[in-house]
Every structure is written in C-alpha cells, then in structure tokens.
TrEMBL record:
It holds the Pfam family X8. One of its GO terms (biological process) is carbohydrate metabolic process. This is X8 domain-containing protein. Residues 65-156 form the X8 domain. The keyword NADP does not apply. It comes from Triticum aestivum. GO terms for molecular function: hydrolase activity, hydrolyzing O-glycosyl compounds. The keyword ATP-binding does not apply. It comes from the Eukaryota. Keywords: Glycosidase, Hydrolase, Signal. Belongs to the glycosyl hydrolase 17 family. GO terms for cellular component: plasmodesma.
Amino acid sequence: MRMPVLVFALFNENVKGGPGTERHWGLFYPNGSAVYEVDLTGRRPAAPYPPLPPATNDLPYPGKLWCVARTDRHGAVANETAVREQVATACADEAGLCDPVRPSGGCHLPDTVAAHASYVFSAHWNRFSKQYGGWCYFGGLAVETTVDPSHGSCKFPSVTPG
C-alpha cells in the first residue's frame, strides 16, 4: 500500500525561539541522529518498529503569545486580498473586535494592512482560543510570536497557553 507523505522538516530546530513545539518537527536531531526510526524507502514492515519515545516537550509555553500577520522581511503581507478577507471575517464574528483599528481607534496607526490584521488576529485569537480551543492560523496568514507587538497606547491582547 502506498501512502503520500509530506516531510515538514528534516531537522529539529534547536535554536528557534517561541513555544517548544515549534522546535520539534524534524526527523533528525541537529547532531544528525534520528528522532524516530523511519524507513523512507517504504520497504520495512510496521511491526518491527519500536514504540514512539515518550513526549518530553509537551509543556505549554510559559509566557504570553500574540498572533500577528505573517509578513516578509519588509513588513508586507504576502497576499493582501486574503489577509483583508480574514480580517473581515474576524470582524464580522464579534461586534466591537475591530473598533481599535478603525480611524478613530487607538490602534489605527500605523494604517497598514499588516498592522491592522495583526491587531485583529491577536484580538480574535485572545477572545476565542480559551473558549473554543482555536489557534493562530487564519488560513496560514498568521503566526504566533513571543514579542509583544503593542506600541504606544495600542495594547494587543495576548494569550497565555496552558
């Protein structure tokens, strides 16, 4: 039987910041030793594989997290239309959620798609993550950060995992 597989990462990223789970997606440790016994040829039967190792990295990140728009190194969003659609959907879900980024709101400036989306994504995630177990994704247009994006009087809502 053939099964299509996508390898997300070959190596664990031992120096990557953020929540611990962000560092442990690889098939190999940074030193090259195997995290799991894997036969990428597909010839080895499943029976001789040992059980998976116990989880040692399943503790939630101990600090605050924010959900911000995924941007390139220049601060621009990759797909402005899709980001605007996600923001519109989030704003329609909950009355008042987007008031801070409207022209009279305390988070209107800077008046950019990335800045407004970041506030809305963080506020929406903060409001619904505990109740519904949501995550910071927004169609792949958002990313978690441990760096507080608040500025001046504009305070971004955060989530504390756990």
